[in-house]
Amino acid sequence: MSDLVPADTTEDVRTRAAGVSRQVAVLPVGSFEQHGGYLPLATDTLVACAVAREIAGAYPVHLLPPVTISCSHEHAAWPGTVSISSVTLHAVVRDIAASLRRSGVDALVVVNGHGGNYVLGNVVQESSARGERMALFPAAEDWEAARERAGVVTSLLTDMHAGEIETSILLHAHPEMLRPGYETSDFVADDRRHLLTLGMSGYTDSGVIGRPSLGSAEKGNELLASLAESFGAYFSLLTSDA
Fold first, then answer.
1. Beta-carbon contacts of residue 60 (< 8 Å; ≥ 6 apart)
2. Whole-angstrom distance, CA of residue 13 vs CA of residue 72
3. What CA–CA distance (Å, rounded) separates 220 from 71?
4. Are 108 and 27 in contact, with CB atoms under 8 Å apart?
5. Would you say 163 and 133 are in contact if contact means Cβ atoms under 8 Å apart?
6. What is the pLDDT of residues 70-127, one digit of tens each?
7. Could you give the maximum distance between any two Cα atoms of the chain, in Å?
């Protein structure tokens, strides 16, 4: 689990900064919420960190430690889930961005591992409107490209929670964190129009919506590789002089 916390020293950061025209920081944002009986509560944090590490291996970015608790209110019916308010998460990300700018890092990419963190889109919109350099990654289009490249069978609509994608990434990046049961936990609930009102418990008893049985370490590796490639456009945008 030590790879969740960057091992950089301040000299590492200074050296990296000397080789780029504009510094870009990458902030993984996960959650602490139920993921069925076979994936850990920290799944979204593990996924966000895996994506962020892949990015840091390919681009000269300043990798930050993760935000590990976020907006998981729709999972409140399950033991272990912990949430903070959207107002708090908004403030945390804004404070981090402001602190980075004071130390000379004026671009921030938020790598979001939890679909319920809707407020992160607002943070980025508002920051961009103020002239600050910020992006939210991955977009749905990035996930779709990764899904196709990796041969993930389940659509993004169906693969909502603890399904093929998350199981695949953990099988690749943290296989020691999985417990038995993903092979027999498939459950589909594509019509979730009242999710914000009813929460997840209105649609699933197990907490799973997706097909985890189709997950594999090979798919997880390809998903991460595709996302790292997709990140190139974000890096170019944030480091351009425009």
1. 16, 19, 20, 24
2. 33
3. 25
4. yes
5. no
6. 999 999 999 999 999 999 999 999 999 999 999 999 999 999 999 999 999 999 999 9
7. 52
Bridge-based pairing of strands 133-137 and 24-29 is unpaired
Residues paired with residue 108 on neighbouring β-strands, in sequence order: 25, 134
To which residue do tokens 């935000």 refer?
67
* Total residue length of the chain: 242
Q: Is the dihedral of CA 47, 49, 52, 56 positive or negative?
A: negative
The whole-angstrom separation of Cα 39 and Cα 52 is 20
**CA 35/CA 187 separation, integer angstroms:** 13
Please tell me what DSSP assigns to residue 100: H
The single-letter code of the amino acid at 63 is L
97: left (phi over 0), alpha (psi -120 to 50) or beta: alpha
154-191 residue pLDDT tens = 999 999 999 999 999 999 999 999 999 999 999 999 99
Per DSSP, 210 falls in state B
Closest by alpha carbon to 92, among 129, 50, 64?
Answer: 64
Q: DSSP labels for 146-184?
A: HHHHHT--S-TTT--BSSHHHHHHHHHH-GGG--TTGGG
CA 1 to chain centre: 17
Residues 168 and 208: their CA atoms lie apart, in Å, by 15
